[in-house]
Amino acid sequence: MPLPTFWKTIEERYRTGLSYVFLLYFNINDIIYDDVYGYLWTRDYLLERMNYLGCDAVLYYTRSEGLQFPNIALRNAYQSALRFGRIEEIEPLPDPPEGMDTYPIKNINANLRRVGEDRQIKEPQEMMTMIERFFRQGLGNLRVGFLVQDIEKLLPNRKGVPLKDQQNIVELETWQRWANDLQFRDRGHIILLLTENISNVAPELITNEQSTIYPVEIPMPTYQERLAFIRHLLYIPEAEGEEGKYKLLLPEGVLSEEFAMMTHGLNLMDITNLWITSRTKKTPVTPAMVVQQNRESIKIRSYGRLELVYGEHGLNTVGNLAVVIDYMVKVINLLKNWDAKGVPKGILLVGPPGTGKTNLVNALGRDMGIHIVKLCGLRGNDPTTRSDWDLHRAFDIIRSLTPVIAFIDDIDKLGYSGTDENERRVMNQLMEDLLKFMRDPRLRGRVLWIGATNRPDLVNPEFRKPGTLDDVIPFLLPDVRGREDILRKIFPRNSIPFNERINFGAIAGKTERCTGADLEVIAVRSYQNARLNNRDIVIDQDIEKAVSEFIVPRDPNMDEYLMLLALREANIVSLIPKQLPGNLANIVFENNMINKAKISQRIRELEIMLNIQKK
Per CATH, the architecture of 480-549 is what? Predict the structure, then answer.
């Protein structure tokens, strides 16, 4: 298997003398394939790569373990425990490089004896003093490879607050000095600093104009890398009598290539978790298990800033939105085909609550075979203590999932509504960062943004500028045909048994002003009526009773107001329903054209009637 792209970048810059200190970030807690030793944890893979570069001594440091010289015997033990067989157990070693009779395998730290065995060095100050002496030692031209795990714990981002602690200043200056030390460079030392979230690291480490520390992203595994790992798990060597005990089990008829496609967005550790769960349950890995692993992984990696959108029901259960569904499906298929010119930067769904905006997005997440992630937080009184770090981490994850849809529900509520001026300042910066990310031209055709709101008039105007949320789709109260369509789908969707002879058309005629959410309440109440009368299925009189007792919980003027706001923002004629509810047609259309001046006039009248105060 070819070297990962990120390591090729490191090796090229190291061998040409451009850099020898690298900041590695993002997917640092994973498994990577090594041609000699098979699958290794990321840290061990990096240590072996430094060993292969010719380092005479390779060591690493974490706050919990202290300074460590890796031991090949210990690594082989965990490889055996996890059934990560050494490569020679599965296939022959690769051919040696040209001009060599054997492959140049040197056990890591093979020439060192008892180095680092005296005691553990855990304190950062003592560690840095010891490492500097080791780098400058008089043992000839000993070349050192040094890896630091979780560098953000040594040099944390203090959110723009200047460093005041003298020790922290010294530590930061030490790292900057090491990155420019000609003696270190000439001796061939290499230093790898690891962090999951680059935003957590003191920005001075890489933004200082004199710093030569080079940031390198370790990406999520590619399709080919996932496929190779899946096949490894499918064909793990097993001892006699242990057949099938360790191998990955896939559902009948599912090929490894198909499973590799299903696991888009997962790293190899996630796939390992699926394998372990499957072994524990003694069942094949199901699509539902993959979805759950995706949901958990995305939430954990984003520190709760992102959630996977995957509805319980598909598009066949969504009523009254056939035209909108057709449009969304076509756009998403273009996105899946990387058609940058055919995909808008963003889509805004606008309309009263209960008209199906969020329900549609959930169904798309289930049926369209593409990741939809919901951006959480960043609204109301949400504390911003870690928001800036978490948001940029969320951006990294969104990039890794492309092609992907990013969803912002209640987009009108984004922003800070508290009284703390410092929190407001931080939130404003977050909004700027979000808008910058949304408008990034490099992500066009790779990330589709979808926003949803009941109040488009309260949405930050920056989100409505060209290149952000370009297409606006109105969601209105359903007409009688729409309500009939919703009713026919709501009962099966909620697993409510009903008499197939129910006249849904007649029922729909009695539910004027009801939204889809209202009709769902009516459906549930109709089943309650049936059970109260000792029936297992809903009949006409059950649903008619539920309709007669239902009170629409909204002011009709508010319904009209929210629908007019949606129609004023709509900018695609074909997505405006031909039959508008109530008297809306007389307000919206004039000479078969949409008259936005008349719409705005009626909106102002309704604002006075409803006592709506604008900020």
Answer: Orthogonal Bundle (1.10)
Residue 26: strand pairing partners: 218
User: The pTM is what?
Assistant: 0.89
pLDDT at position 467 over 50: yes
Query: In this predicted model, which residue has the larger pLDDT, 240 or 331?
Result: 331
CATH 1.10.760 is held by the domain 5-218 = no
The CATH class given to the 307-474 domain equals alpha beta
Query: b/e string for 273-309 if b means 16 or more Cβ within 10 A?
Result: bbbeebbeeeeebbeebbeebbeebbbebbbebbbbb
Supply 236's token pair. 């793990």
In sequence order, which residues have a C-beta less than 8 Å from that of residue 586 and are 6 or more positions away? none
Q: Report the range of poorest mean pLDDT among 69-78, 148-157, 189-198, 597-606.
A: 69-78
> Which pLDDT value is given to residue 104?
57
Least confident of 189-193, 344-348, 583-587: 583-587
- Cα–Cα distance, 40 to 183 (Å, whole number): 32
| 478 preceded by a cis bond (ω within 30 of 0) | no
Q: Which two tokens stand for residue 128?
A: 């840095």
In this structure, are strands 589-590 and 593-594 parallel, antiparallel, or unpaired?
antiparallel
Partnered with residue 147 across adjacent β-strands are 60, 192
Report the run of H or E that residue 299 belongs to, with start and end.
helix 287-301
Summarize the confidence of residues 156-161 as an average pLDDT: 72
From 253, 259, 251, select the one nearest 232 (Cα to Cα): 259
d(CA 535, CA 40): 61
Instruction: Compute how many other C-beta atoms are within 10 angstroms of the C-beta atom of residue 243.
Output: 9
Residue 153 DSSP SS3: helix
* Closest alpha carbon to 153 in 131, 173, 169, 168: 168
Which pLDDT score, from 0 to 100, does residue 387 have?
Answer: 63
If you average pLDDT over every residue of the chain, what do you get? 89
pLDDT at 241: 66
Across 161-187, average pLDDT: 80
Q: Which residues of 206-222 are buried (b: 16+ CB within 10 A; e: fewer)?
A: bebeebbbbebbbbbbe
User: Residue 513 to residues 479, 551, 559: CA-CA distances in angstroms?
Assistant: 8, 10, 8
